[in-house]
Amino acid sequence: MTAQLVALCIDAHDPLGLARFWAGVLGWEMTDDPRDGIVLLPNDDTGFRIRCLPTQEKKTAQNQIHFDLTSASLEAQQQTVDRALALGARHIDVGQRPEEGHVVLADPEGNELCVIEAGNNFLADCGFIGALSCDGTQEVGYFWSEALGWPLVWDQDQETAIRSPHGGPKITWGGPPVAPKTGKNRLHFDLAPPAGGDQQAEVDRLVSLGATRADIGQREVSWVVMADPDGNEFCVLTPR
């Protein structure tokens, strides 16, 4: 039995504004959950929610995770870019080369995203969210494959990718060099124990796979904050 990925959480100065942006880009429903805060509910096979959480911390470096959004055609790619810009995104330069076909944007809080060109073979069978693209080592790709029970769909030249057996986006790690970690990540995963499972048993299992407990200043909370082998924070929630 393995943990379930229930949410990708994004820290935001304006959680409601950021949620409205992503709801508009993705076409997902936005709801206010008493436990989870502002949540976006998928209307496709994505399999996890997006949560927007309040923070006062400034963004100081490129995120460790970003969205890769797919396109069925050149026109569809431009439509996605135009929609995102109208909702508050902006073009940014992260070192992409002119000959690369994807468009790099930042959402209203500065979080990077890529709108991928049509005909991308790696994401050909994925939905609109083609991938969560991560900066990370081969080791951390192996860890998350075991943690979630998602098989490796790519493992070459120290680059790895996993995908749920039920479909949805891939999660990819680009291999070395990995940027030095500076402070708490603005995006993190929320996991839940398997159905009928126990939070402490799941924490113990994740520790056996290479995770560690993490202290980000949390006080008495019901979730357990952990870090993967690359030091990226994630949370293990209590069973609902």
UniProtKB/TrEMBL annotation:
What InterPro entries does this protein's entry cite? Glyas_Bleomycin-R_OHBP_Dase (IPR029068), Glyoxalase_6 (IPR041581), VOC_core (IPR037523)
* Boundaries of every VOC domain copy: 125-239
Gene3D superfamilies per the record?
A: 2,3-Dihydroxybiphenyl 1,2-Dioxygenase, domain 1
User: Membrane-spanning residues where?
Assistant: none
Q: What is the superkingdom listed in this entry's lineage?
A: Bacteria
User: Which PANTHER family does the entry link to?
Assistant: CONSERVED PROTEIN, HYPOTHETICAL FUSION PROTEIN
Q: What is this protein called?
A: VOC family protein
